[in-house]
Amino acid sequence: MDKIKSNLQNMVLVLTGSALICGGLLAYMNNLTKPTIDAQAEKALNEGIAVVLGGNAGERLAEPETVTRTIDGKEQTFTVYKMQNGTAVQSTDPNGFGGNLKVLVGFNAAGDILGYTVLEHAETPGLGAKAGDWFQKGQPGCIIGLNPGKANLTVSKDGGDIDAITASTITSRSFLRAVQQAYKTFSDSYDGQTGATTQHKCGNNETENEQEQ
Prior knowledge:
By secondary structure, the chain is of the alpha+beta class. Helix content is 33%, strand content 19%.
């Protein structure tokens, strides 16, 4: 068998053939692993929804609803999950100290916050990264049980009801904006028909000093 001549044309053919083979293998592996990856993502999402809805979301009442709204001149996308025992809303504020801060917030039928989890952030480790815990039940900035339509969910430095994370006011503002926008999206999805009196479930919280990051 004659040896393939080493010239530009043959080199291009060999490289093209290699690229096609590699691309085909990658596509095959992607199709092979995609169902597993999708199943894991769905499981993680369902677990997150259960957490923010008090541990028991119940059955899904409808397919997830994607909502696009214009906020401060920029389009932002929200996802609404209507469940048997409440509604979870995924919301992102782009103005965190390190960039996007994405949260999943659970509401009951009255619009009271049942729980939340931080899905994504780029905040300072040890400071802004505390958002995942700081606003939980029993913590200094607790928002659980509050209704954003009635309570002033801004930091106390800005005249609001919530204690900011110590030395992380920027992150706190971003987090609370994300929660407020989640509530707005939730409220709009039910045509604003949220009622009932809110009972704050946090107990007595100590006020913390606030500083800019």
